Amino acid sequence: MENELTDFSKIAIAVHPKNHQAFTLAEKISTSLEKDGKQVLLGRMDETKFQEGISEGCQDLLIALGGDGTMLRAGHISAPFNLPILGINLGHYGFLTEIQEDEWQNALQRVLKGDYWLEKRMMLLVTLYRGDQKQGEWNALNDAVISRGEIIRPVQFEIFINSRYLSTTVADGVIASTATGSTAYALAAGGPILSPDLRNIVLVPIAPHLSIEQALVLSEKVLVSVTVHTSHQAVISIDGQLPVKMKTGDRVEIQASDHEVQFIRFQDPGYFYRNLIPYMDQNPSIKKKNV
Question: What is the rounded distance in angstroms from the CA atom of residue 174 to the CA atom of residue 82?
Answer without folding.
Answer: 30
